[in-house]
Amino acid sequence: MKTVRLLSILFVICATLSTFAIAQSSPEILSPESVFGFVPGSDRLLIDYTELVDYMLDISAASDRIESVAAIPSDGITRDP
Fold first, then answer.
1. Which of 15, 19, 30, 68 could be cross-linked to 60 through a Cys-Cys bond (beta carbons 3.0 to 4.6 Å apart)?
2. How many angstroms from the chain centroid is the CA of residue 9?
3. At 80, phi and psi to the nearest 5?
4. Are 46 and 53 in contact (CB under 8 A)?
């Protein structure tokens, strides 16, 4: 459970840092603050998982620097797409 929490936190941090860099270079990509209504990582404010995934997919579609790939499910069972 601690590993999942740590990976989730690291993902949000990496996503936030990468979006700051992209938002500065690409004006068509919205900042996380404008999409979620608050700065990610703020005290007592959480981003909904589906909103985060949608935001990351939007960034991936708008940028040539980010690529979204499917990951193996947490249960370890590989499924055909």
1. 68
2. 10
3. -75, 140
4. no
Distance (Å, whole) CA 10 – CA 67:
18
The pTM of the full predicted model, rounded to 2 decimals, is 0.53
Overall residue count recorded for the chain in this entry? 81
Domain ranges of the chain: 2-62
Nearest to 15 by CA among 72, 70, 68: 68
Per-residue pLDDT of the chain (81 residues; tens, 9 = 90+): 677 776 677 677 767 776 666 555 555 888 999 999 999 888 999 988 889 889 988 988 888 888 888 776 666 666 555
